[in-house]
Amino acid sequence: MMSKNTTIDIPKGCKRVKRRLLYLSFLMLFSLSLENVDQVFAGQITWTEKKVGKAAIKADKAAMGQKWLQAIKYGEQMLSGTEALYGQHNINYISRLKTLNRYYDKAGRLGEISDRVKKAYILSKKHFKPDHDTAVLSRLLYYKYLISQKNYHRSAQIVLENISGLSNSKKDDYKKLHYLTQLHGLYGLTDQLEAQEKILIKLLALNKRLVGIDKEDNLEIIMNLAKNYCLQKKNAKFDQLMQTYDLNFEC
């Protein structure tokens, strides 16, 4: 039996282990407390135009240096602040969403933000004219995403929208030439031969007007049209095309 006044000597090594465990427990609790504080304050940022502007400047500076990961980081802050201040249907939000989507595209990460790409396309179509920079770039990024997903039917519809927004100027005629060439390929991929035929006829007429009427300037388009007639078994049109351009080919 031990008396009440008896003391037990704890070995020094055990004391050190006990103190170490208490210290580690304190550090873990302190770390968790800081993490919780960070999470609380991260969701309670009081955004101002000045703060959003600073984030936008940092994002733009990073983009100018082609530092796309930094541009994305600050671009996300910029977009969050803009949404908090103005909402998603404000033109400032739509414009900055388009800009952030462009950063992701430059970083080769467009597929990660498919919902945002579609959202920018829909919102810009609703709030901007078709020839506005925000609308034009948003359509382009959406088109790139659709192509990457091999959604050629929807891609063709976007190209038609691009054409519908063009003027009759010579500058826009060259853009139209490019878009018609895209449509020719997309209609071929989706086996829309009649639609492809109409596009090739328009493409041939426009190419003659912009490039030249010589057969050599138009031969690629002529041969694509000839191939189209063969696939549709429109032999009379094929023969007429060969006769018009003095070519000697058979289906």
Content-based structural category: mainly alpha
What global shape is seen?
elongated
**Number of E-type strands:** 0
Gyration radius, in Å: 32 Å
Helix content range: over 70%
Number of H- or I-type helical stretches: 11
The description of the largest β-sheet is: none
**How far do the termini sit from each other?**
114 Å
Helix-strand pattern: HHHHHHHHHHH
- The percent range for strand residues is under 5%
Residue stretches low in confidence (pLDDT < 50, at least 5 long) are: 1-8, 21-42
Average pLDDT, to the nearest integer? 87
Topology:
Layout: H1 12-42, H2 49-64, H3 68-86, H4 91-106, H5 114-127, H6 133-148, H7 152-164, H8 170-189, H9 193-210, H10 215-231, H11 235-244
Give a verbal description of the structure:
The chain is an all-alpha fold and 251 residues long. The chain is 76% helix and 0% strand. It has helices spanning 12-42, 49-64, 68-86, 91-106, 114-127, 133-148, 152-164, 170-189, 193-210, 215-231, 235-244. Helix 8 (170-189) runs antiparallel to helix 9 (193-210). The termini are far apart.
Features:
76% helix; 251 residues; disordered N terminus; 0% strand; elongated; mainly alpha
Describe what is shown at a glance.
The protein has 251 residues and is mainly α.
